[in-house]
Amino acid sequence: MSDYRTLPPATMLSPVPAVLVSCRGVGEDARPNALAVAWTGTVCSHPPMVSISLKPERYSFELIRQSGEFVINAADAAHAKALDHCGVRSGRDGDKLKACGLEAVPMEGMACAPRLEGFPMSLGCRLRQEIPLGSHVLMLGEVTAVMIRDDLFDSDGSLHLERAGLVCYSHGVYQRASDVLGFFGWSVARPEVYQRRMEALGR
Amino acid sequence: MSDYRTLPPATMLSPVPAVLVSCRGVGEDARPNALAVAWTGTVCSHPPMVSISLKPERYSFELIRQSGEFVINAADAAHAKALDHCGVRSGRDGDKLKACGLEAVPMEGMACAPRLEGFPMSLGCRLRQEIPLGSHVLMLGEVTAVMIRDDLFDSDGSLHLERAGLVCYSHGVYQRASDVLGFFGWSVARPEVYQRRMEALGR
Question: What percent of chain B has pLDDT above 70?
Fold first, then answer.
C-alpha cells in the first residue's frame, strides 16, 4: 500500500479547467468584462449545461444576472498570463480586457455577452438557475452555441481539441493538457481500432 | 482576427478532470463500485463542495443515494486505462474493480464509500443536494476529508500536486496535465517572487 496524508476538507479537485468567463451588462454604455473561473464544469449532456461558481461580491456577478448570459472561453498557453491577470484584478478598478490585451468580439447567439478573440474555444451560455451554496453561488447555464478556432479542425472536418494545449489548474498551478494517453473506449478497443485512432491523435 | 467555426450546442467544456468515483451501497453484502465521471467540478469554497453529474440509470446512482457518500479519486497516467475501462463497463455486469486490478480501501471519514488504493488523491464527499437537469442529475457533495499520496509532498511539507501528472479529458481524449505555465498570481508577481516560485515548480 502507498503512504497517504490526510488533509482537512478543501477545494482540491484537480485538474480543473482554467477559463475566462466574458460578460457584459445591459445598456448601451455597458463595458465588457472577463473573470477567471476555475470553479466550472459540465453538469448535463441533454440539454448541454455547464456551471460556474462565483462569489456574489465579484463585479461580474451582477453583469451576468442582468444580461442572463455568459461566455466561457477556454485558454491555451498563449492566453494563460492574461487569464491569471484577470483572476487577480477586478473589473471595478478599470478596463481589465484592455490592460491584458484582450479583445471582446460578438459571440454567436448572444445578445450581450461577448467572446474573447483568439481563444481556442468559446461556449455561449444562457443562465438557467442560481443556487446559493455559501461563499459561492452556483450558476447553471445552458450552452447555446460553440465557436472553435479553425486551425483545430483537420482537413476532413474532424475536431482535434487535444491539439490546443488547453490550460488547467491544479492547487494553485497552471498546467497545459499535453501528452495524449488514449481516447474514450481505448481500454476495450480492438488492436486495429486502437492503432488507427492513436495515429490520428499523433501517437 | 482568427477564423472560427460555429458548432451546435454541446458539452465541449475542456479540459475537465477525468476521475473515478468510488462508492458502496449500505448493508453487509454491499460491493464497492467505481464509475468514471467527467462531469465533475468544484462548486463552492466555504464549505468546500464539489459536483458530480450522473445519469439516474447508472448502477452507482442508487448506491450513492443509499449511502449519502461518494469518493472522488483523481487519476494519474498509471490509472488512466482502468479509468477508461470503468467508463465503458457497468458494475451491474460484474465486479469492475477486480477486472481493472483496482483495490477499494477505507477512506478517512466515510462509513460506506471506499477510496481507490494508489491514486494520487481522494476526496471524501457527503451528498448534500440533488438537482435533476435532464439527462443527468447534478449531485452536490461537501468534501469532508482529503487523502493525498505521500510522494507528492516535499520534505518541507509543501504539496506539489502538479507533479502527479493528473489526467484530464478533452472531447473524447485523455491527456496528462504536464507543462507548468505559472502559478496563481504570476502575472503580477515581483521578479524575485516569480523566480523563487517557478524554481520550486521545477521550471
Answer: 100
> What's the structural domain count of chain A?
1
| CA–CA distance, B112 with B66 (Å, rounded to integer) | 10
CA B112 to chain centre: 18
Q: Is A2 within a domain?
A: no
User: For residue B75, which amino acid is it?
Assistant: A
Using CA atoms in the order A27, A33, A36, A37, what is the torsion angle rounded to 10 degrees?
10
pLDDT for A161-203, tens place per residue?
A: 999 999 999 999 999 999 999 999 999 999 999 999 999 998 7
Q: For residue A69, what is the enclosing H or E element?
A: strand A69-74
3-class DSSP state of B17:
strand
Q: Cβ of A9 and B47 within 8 Å?
A: yes
Q: Which of A2, A5, A13 to mutate to probe the B interface, most B CBs <10 Å? A: A13
Residue environment code for B97-125, b if the CB has 16+ CB neighbours within 10 A, otherwise e:
beebebebeebebbebbbbbebbbbbbbb
In this predicted complex, what is the ipTM? 0.95
What is the distance between the alpha carbons of residues A4 and B117, in angstroms, rounded to a whole number? 10
Global pTM reads 0.96
State the CATH number of the domain containing residue A42: 2.30.110.10
Confidence of residue B161 (pLDDT cuts 50, 70, 90): very high
A47 to B170: CB separation less than 8 angstroms, yes or no:
no
Q: Which domain holds residue A144?
A: 16-200
